[in-house]
Structures are given as C-alpha cells and as structure tokens.
Design brief:
The complex is a heterodimer of chains A (362) and B (179). Chain A is of the alpha+beta class. Chain A is 46% helix and 14% strand. Chain A has a single domain (39-329), classed as Cytochrome-c3 Hydrogenase, chain B, CATH 1.10.645. Chain A has 12 helices and 8 strands. A 3-stranded antiparallel beta sheet of chain A has the order 1-2-3. Chain A has a 3-stranded antiparallel beta sheet with strand order 6-7-8. The longest helix of chain A has 30 residues, at 90-119. By secondary structure, chain B is of the alpha+beta class. Chain B folds into 2 domains: 37-110, Alpha-Beta Plaits; 117-178, no CATH class. Chain B contains 8 helices and 5 strands, in the order ααβαββαββαααα. In chain B, the strands form 2 sheets. Chain B has a 3-stranded antiparallel beta sheet. In chain B, strands 1-4 form a two-stranded antiparallel sheet. In chain B, strand 2 (60-63) and strand 3 form a beta hairpin. Chain B starts with a helix and ends with a helix. Classes of the chains: A alpha+beta (362), B alpha+beta (179).
Chain lengths: 362, 179
C-alpha cells in the first residue's frame, strides 16, 4: 500500500473553464476522497435584490452566468410574474422557450467543444465553436446581444421575432443539425473517447436519486426527471416530450445524453415556431409584489433544474431572492463520482458533469 | 480511425467560403437591433431623469440645472432598460459598439433648451435678472422671477417677440383664454 497524499486540483486548471478547487486524497493513483471547495468568484448577486428594484434585477439575474443567461432571466421573470399573479401573452411564452432552447443548444455545443479540446481533438473543438457561432448570430439578430441578451422583462419579452426570422432559425438549425450529427458521430464513435469514458465515474440510479442530482448528469443515471416535462409556459403545448435517458450511469452516458439533447431542442424550436400564436409580446406591469407574498419556480437550465424563490415586501424591492442552481445540486454527485477513480480520470469526470461555477456561487 | 471521421466535413471546408473574416479589414455586418451603445437625441430630451433613476448600474446622470445628460460607458451594461423607460423615446441603442479607450471618461451631452411656451417664458424671465446679477452673487431661482404684474407682462411680451410666429400666436391665444 502506498502513502496517502492530497493533490490540489484547480482552481486554475486547463480542463476547468471556471474556478473550482478539489482536494483529492489519493493513494496509489486512486482517488479515495474528493472535497470540492468553492467561493472563488462569489459576487453576492442575491443580496443585490434588496438594492435593485424587481425590474432592474432581471439584468443582474441574467449576469449570474454567461451560458445560462437567458434561462436565469426567464426563470427570474417567471417567478416575479407568479409573485404578482401576472399572466403573460402566449406569444411571449413561446418566444421565451424558443430562445431558451436556443441557449441550451449553444451551451451543449460549447460543452462538446470543450470536451473535444480536453481530449486533444483541436479540429473538433474548432468545428463545435463554428457551429456555436451560428447560434450566437441568431441571438445577435433577434435579441441584439450575443451572450447577455436583456430581452426578457417582467410581463413578457422586449423584442418580437417575425415569421421570416423564424424561418431563418429553422434553416440555420437544420444546417447545424446535420453537421452536429457528424461531429457527434466522430466524437462518440472514437475508440479513444470511449475507452477513457466508458465505465468511469459511475453513479448508480439509487445514488443519483439520493444525492438529488439534476439535469443530464442525473438523466445519464436513468433518473426520469426534466422540468420541461412539467409543461410550464409554452412547454405545455408540445405534442410530445420525453427526457433523454441512459442507464449506463458513466461518463460516456452523460456525453451521449448531452449530445442527444441538441437535436431534441432543435425539434422543440421547430414545433413551437410552427405553432406560435400572433398577438402581444408583453403586458404592462404596474405595482409591486404584496407584503409577505412568496413564489417559487423551476426552470430546466442546460445543466439541470434551477429553483427560484422570491419574497415580496410590498415595495418594488424584493425581500429575498434565492436561486438553487443545478451545479450546486450536482457537486455532491461529483464528489461521489470521483471516489475510487484514477487520478487521470478526474478531469474527464469533472468535464462530463459540466459544472457551472458562476451559477453555483452567484 | 479518428482521422477519417471528420474527413467529409474537413474536405468539404476546402471548397467553402471561410467562416471567419479578415478582421479588422473586413467586418461582419451589424444586425439592425444590435445593442452597441446608448445614444441620445438631445433635442427631444426633457431631462425628466427617468433614465437616471431606472439605470441598474447608475451610469446615467441627468443634471437639470446644467442641462446635461451624462453616461459613464465603462459602467453601462447595455441592458437597454433606460431606452424602455424614456417617456420621449429619445434614447436608443446604436448598433455600433463604443470605441475602446485607455482613460476613464464620462460622455456628457448638452441638452438644448426646449421651445415650449412655458419654458421659454421662464427662461426669458430669468435672462435680465441673470445678467443683472452676473457681477454680484448668483441669485436663486425665486429671486429671478419678476414679482409685480407689470414686469411679468413685459417679460412675457419680450419672450413672445422672440418666438416663431406660429408659436407666438399659440401663446397669445392661451393667454387670452386664461384671462
């Protein structure tokens, strides 16, 4: 038996786009225990809700994370709408979901590019980012922003998407779908990728449930849970929606689930674009949330379920705004997945969980 | 073999137009609604201060006394909330990004006086008092307003004389209606 040692992993590490520190207790190259440590980029954004009014805070909420920006603004706006008992126009709901699914596509393509880069596939990385650029162009044309959109407001959305632009959405996404299928085929069928990820970082179904894991990380362990199933907003008008599941429970399964979610999102956008009703995109909102009113909401972010809680105090400033982000749920699962793995596999496990530290620390 | 799996895509790229552009010689066209920077049509601004109060980062400062509208571009997050709050719709998002700068500066825009009858009247009333007091201490707003009716009427007539004929007629009609 070797001697126990602690290897620090992060916060600065080539495989990590965001800072997280792991204390890896290793013995003979095997990780016995992994202790995650966060707090490097805490900004205290939830506290800001007491100094910004509920309309202004939407621009703070979407700056929680660059990748989930749209999801956070949508989740926050929906929470405030529940708090104030506002029903937004149907068209606004559709537009929100279309943009939200588009941001899921951009997030998953970004992740695939980073995964390819971590494996040393430079060309695949470039191809992924080339596809992502097309999605960002769609965002730029319709919202005026590439990463931070500022297009959601309490009571609806600020900009409309006309029919010709929706057609362009479908054309561009069809092009992406074909090329994305080729990239996924090249990546997932690659023996070096399969050998490094299959059977690594296994979390069985029971553990995934016990650890309250969410998102593709949980769905790769056969947990049949996706907030989109609940049918909030325009998701209720989808003809058919079934979460993509895998029961292999390992890193490879997580990659497969994420890869399959992009075509699913494209289909959702296609369906909603064909069904989108005409009408207003926003309703005027006046007044403030009532004293001691409380509301909660869940949104399926690219990384999983994000829970929002808001409490009003009779003024336009909220008493409390709380967000429980998917990565903060998944950190416990990550520590379990790392237990017993090889030191060389740590970066693969961390990468396939796709942690978003900005969201977690807020 | 992994080498050939992307072969179709990579080989096809040889015959396609490049995805990238030769920046800065060539630049991608900017979409119409791009949120580049906040621009103001100073002629329509009424200095109400809604943009100042609505700004989440407090980057806009409206000074009614100095008639200036100032924005700190380094602090602005280009959310566009001020644009939606502006009652006169004189703010808009320009598609061009603000140029890079090595110094922290604040853009100050002088807002010209509005040609509204009431304001013109007040501004003209203040003029003689302001010139008279230029050598002495700066008088307050209340001191500048003529107190007796005769002075006020004279100031009003002087203000009307400086107005455009149509506007002057409207003001006269309004005064007659009031009397």
């Amino acid at each position: 038996m070797g001697k126990k040692a602690i290897i620090p992993f992060g916060p600065q590490h080539p495989v990590l786009p965001e800072p997280i520190h792991l204390d890896l207790v290793v013995e003979d190259e095997v990780v016995l225990e992994a202790t995650p440590q966060i707090g490097f980029i805490h900004r205290g954004l939830e506290r800001l809700v007491q100094t910004k009014d509920y309309n202004q805070f939407i621009y703070v909420a979407e700056r929680i994370c660059g990748i989930c920006a749209f999801g956070h603004s949508m989740g926050y706006a929906e929470t405030i709408e529940r708090l104030m008992d506002i029903e937004i126009p149907k068209r606004a709901e559709y537009l929100r979901v279309i943009w939200h699914e588009l941001s899921r596509i951009h997030s998953h393509i970004l992740w695939l590019g980073l995964a390819a880069d971590a494996f040393g596939h430079e060309a695949l990385f470039m191809h992924c980012w080339r596809l992502r650029e097309r999605v960002l162009d769609l965002f730029e044309k319709t919202t005026g922003g590439r990463v931070i959109f500022s297009v959601v407001k309490v009571g609806g959305v600020q900009r409309d998407i006309d029919a010709s632009m929706l057609d362009e959405f479908i054309t561009v996404l069809d092009g992406i779908k074909d090329e994305y299928a080729q990239i996924c085929k090249a990546f997932l069928n690659e023996p070096s990728v399969y050998n490094r990820t299959a059977g690594v970082g296994v979390i069985p179904y029971e553990d995934a449930l016990n650890l309250s894991m969410v998102g593709p990380f949980a769905r790769a362990s056969a947990v049949n849970y996706d907030v989109r199933m609940l049918g909030n907003g325009a998701y209720s008008d989808l003809a058919d929606f079934a979460p993509i599941l895998s029961d292999n429970c390992d890193c490879y399964a997580r990659m497969e689930v994420r890869a399959a979610e992009v075509p699913q999102s494209i289909e959702i956008i296609r369906e909603l674009a064909s069904k989108i009703p005409a009408g207003d995109i926003a309703i005027p909102v006046k007044g403030a949330p009532a004293i001691d009113s409380e509301a909660c909401n869940v949104v399926e972010q690219p990384r999983g379920e994000c829970y929002y809680f808001a409490k009003g105090n009779g003024t336009k400033y909220l008493d409390r705004m709380r967000m429980r982000t998917p990565t903060s749920q998944n950190l416990a699962g990550m520590a379990v997945a790392l237990k017993g793995c090889d030191v060389a596999d740590v970066n693969m496990i961390v990468l396939t969980i796709d942690p978003c530290i900005s969201c977690t620390e807020r | 073999m992994g080498v050939f799996k992307l072969g179709k895509m990579t080989f096809g790229s040889l015959f396609k137009k490049p995805e990238t552009v030769l920046y800065p010689i060539e630049q991608k066209p900017k979409p119409v609604g791009l949120k580049g920077h906040i621009a103001i049509e100073a002629e329509s601004c009424i200095l109400c201060g809604m943009c100042d109060r609505s700004c989440a980062t407090n980057c806009i400062t409206v000074d009614k006394q100095a008639r200036t509208w100032a924005i700190d571009r380094f602090q602005c997050i280009q959310c566009g909330y001020c644009v939606t709050c502006c009652p006169k719709k004189c703010l808009h998002m320009d598609p061009d990004y603000a140029p890079a700068s090595t110094q922290h500066t604040v853009d100050v825009v002088e807002v010209p006086a509005q040609d509204k009858p009431a304001k013109a009247e007040k501004a003209d009333d203040n003029k003689p008092a302001a010139t008279a007091a230029a050598a002495a201490e700066k008088p307050s707003e209340t001191e500048q307003v003529p107190t007796n009716a005769k002075d006020r009427d004279e100031a009003l007539l002087a203000a009307i004389a400086l107005m455009e004929p149509e506007k002057a007629q409207r003001v006269r009609d309004a005064l007659e209606a009031r009397s």
